Amino acid sequence: MIDIPKLLAAELSLRPHQVQAALELFAEGATIPFIARYRKERTDTMDETQLRDLNDRFTYLTELVDRQKVILESIESQGKLTPELRQQIENCLQKTELEDLYLPYKPKRRTKAMIAREKGLEPLAQWLKAQNQPAATPASLATAAAQYVDEAKGVKTATEALQGASDILAEEIADTAEFRAYLREFLLNNGSFVSKIKAAHPEGSTKFEMYRNYSNRIKNIAAHNLLALYRGEQEEILDFALVCDEDVVQEYLQSRIIRTKDAPLRDFYRSTIEDTWQRLLKNSLINEVRGIKKQAADLESIQTFAANLKELLLSAPAGMKPTCAIDPGFRTGCKVAVLDNTGKFLEYQAIFPHTGQTEKAAATLYQLLEKYQIELIAIGNGTAGRETDEFVATVLQKIDRAIVKVMVNESGASIYSASKVAIEEFPELDITVRGAISIGRRLQDPLAELVKIDPKSIGVGQYQHDVDQKLLKKQLDETVESCVNYVGVDLNTASKELLTSVSGVTAAIAGNIVAYRNENGAFVDRKTLRKVPKLGPKAFEQAAGFLRIRSGKNPLDNTAVHPESYGLVESIAKAEKIPLTETTQIAELLKKNLRSYITEAIGEPTLRDIINELEKPGRDPRAEFRYATFSANIKEMSDLEVGMELEGIVTNVANFGAFVDIGVHQDGLVHVSQLADRYVSDPKEIVKVGQVVQVKVMEIDKALKRVALTMKHRAVKETKTEAPVTAAPIRGVFDRGTPLQSQRPALRRVEPPKQKQ
Fold first, then answer.
1. Which of the two ends of the chain, N or C, has the fewest CB atoms closer than 10 A to its terminal CB?
2. Contact criterion met (CB below 8 Å) for 67 and 743
3. How far is CA 261 from each of CA 126, 128, 131, 167, 271, rounded to the nearest angstrom?
4. Which pLDDT value is given to residue 633?
5. What is the CA angle 414-419-422, rounded to 5?
6. 246's torsion region: left (phi>0), alpha (psi -120 to 50) or beta?
């Protein structure tokens, strides 16, 4: 059987002791964020990406070995397991290859070959195989077949006997692993996907117009094109097929199978091979290849989704400041919710600035802004968003202090407001009020609010409803987990949903933490966590380092220093007579005498992490907050003109380009060819979700509501982040087969570009 640890080390370019240590930690119940952050000595500093790749491949190989055992037992029970076949199966590293080897022995439904064997035609098939040799003496097929005519068994003529023997040989050929592997690879490298729009859909009537007469080599097709083909097929708009040069297939099979020089026997085998391909191999292999390409397209789409989600979750927070959140509307009015500097809901008002009650709405809004000394205004970017933004601007002219007004992407807010989570959080509030609260909170702290929403509803995916939903959920859940643990969580303000994403914290434990907090007040130190029901020693070990307590008893509780390392820091502070609050002084001492503090339990990697935390206690690793300001004169597509230069914010990144909100209720597309003056293969090299960019309008299609934009010859505004590449690892296994910041950065206003006259 496979030596899994040895194979993993070779495949993933890891040292054997790294693999062994990581697998031991997985078996002990340690989470990947915990291992990557607090067990660097044991794994020799493996990061999250390496750990997740290792875990995924280990799972795959474990399943493969389990399947090998089942297959070996099955074949052995049939009395057909040879030493050579056992070795082939045990050395197999791919599930597809394994199933190919098992196919001849796999129990099947009643087939033509089975029926032929029941009629006693197996000996005839074996005779035909024996005759298929260059030196075999030619013999009459009809004469040989006549010996097997038996009406009692259902064989009435020699022709029927030969057909039955052909059925047996066809199944043997179709079950040959070597042939299947070659033809599968041939289709992948030489086949094409073709499509046509069904006759019931006239030209220009569907969104699949580019696929009306479409053809693309399988090996070259882009993921988004393939997923579009699948969607068009599912919606019964497209006829979608896989085609190849079938003459080449016939030539290959004939060259590998036909050995005889006898013309009648050669004709017999040609007919058998044609039947094998058309009846047994063609549809089977086409479905396999479609599945392989679909899996690859799914993974690429999921990777894009996860990368976008990571950027969105790690968006710069505007800060926990008094906030006025507005969910805009025309006829139904604007829902205004007021939040304090902890995100707590304070008051709600409905105003109607767009239905003739402008003065009354302005007075109400002004009163709320002054009463609660609002510092942030969050306006949803949906229907009536730009009109509401303009209305708010007129009210702000009457206030002599600085208030930051930001258009907020409200994707998913309506999903949240009707969710079980929102009902539990605000059972007494109307659904529209909950939506406004969500808009405000996602400006204050995007990560804390967005974790409450199903990632698929946030609007940063590509064909997310068409891909493997199990794999999608797994990758998105891992991305959320990674981002939450990278940033860290305020133990005294975090919601149950946010806490559930913390390493080692289950939904039940998260609920108990909130319940304990509500009953006993704020946590004053991390040690108190041990009093939470069901939060045992293991959960405490996994979670404590990622949970922060601001202004607690111990300054270290507001850092990513794990409680297991407190003793070291406290001993240094005590020996040098430095107050524990003076973390930067302790960090300097550690840095000067690093080697002297290395022990078996705490090595250099952990010490360096401790130094980084002590140097910047309470640091938020996310980027500085910035926001786009839309042109006041551009509100609808009808206001756009080709050549206009605008400021916008990237809302989604796909492998064919980036979508940018320019304030007209319809995102414009910057095609990958228009992202930069140089060639770009991956749009994520240039832009990311949430980035403020400068664009120029290239083309406007009002009928299809499409806006083409370009970023060429424009400086892209950088939005730097300190997040390491391991903050949200994105992977896929093919069948190859930190602490929060009590003082947020100052808000920076980004002025809109001047319009050309």
1. C
2. no
3. 18, 13, 10, 22, 16
4. 82
5. 90
6. alpha
CATH architecture of 4-105: Orthogonal Bundle (1.10)
Q: How big is the chain by its Cα radius of gyration, in Å?
A: 33
One-letter identity of residue 73: E
Of 308, 312, 313, the closest CA to residue 472 belongs to 308
Contact 492/550 with Cβ under 8 angstroms? yes
Q: How far apart are CA 677 and CA 714, in angstroms?
A: 9
Pairing outcome for strands 692-701 and 706-710: antiparallel
Superfamily of domain 323-444: YqgF/RNase H-like domain (3.30.420.140)
So where are the chain's domains?
Answer: 4-105, 323-444, 626-719
The token duo for 525 is 């130190």
* Alpha carbons within 13 A on the beta-carbon side of 559: 25
CA distance linking residue 692 with residue 500, whole number of Å: 31
Burial degree of 579 (CB within 10 A; 0-12, 13-18, 19+): exposed
The whole-angstrom separation of Cα 406 and Cα 316 is: 13
Q: What is the pLDDT of residue 744?
A: 33
Alpha carbon 337 to chain centroid distance? 33
* Distance, CA of 666 to CA of 652 (rounded, Å): 13
Instruction: Give pLDDT, residue 746.
Output: 35
pLDDT at 730: 41
Q: Which helix (H) or strand (E) holds 351?
A: strand 345-351
| Beta carbons of 149 and 158 less than 8 angstroms apart | yes
The tokens for 278 are 């058309």
Reading the block at residue 469, the tokens are: 């939903």
Series of mean pLDDT values for 10-residue runs along the chain (757 residues): 93 96 97 96 96 96 96 96 96 95 93 96 96 90 95 94 97 96 97 96 88 96 94 95 97 96 96 97 97 95 92 92 96 95 95 95 97 96 91 94 92 89 92 94 94 86 86 93 96 95 96 96 95 96 96 92 94 90 90 87 91 90 85 86 91 91 89 90 89 92 88 58 41 38 34 39
pTM over 0.70, yes/no:
yes
Beta bridge partners of 192: 217, 243
Residue 403 in contact with residue 382, Cβ under 8 Å? no
Instruction: Report which DSSP code applies to 155.
Output: B
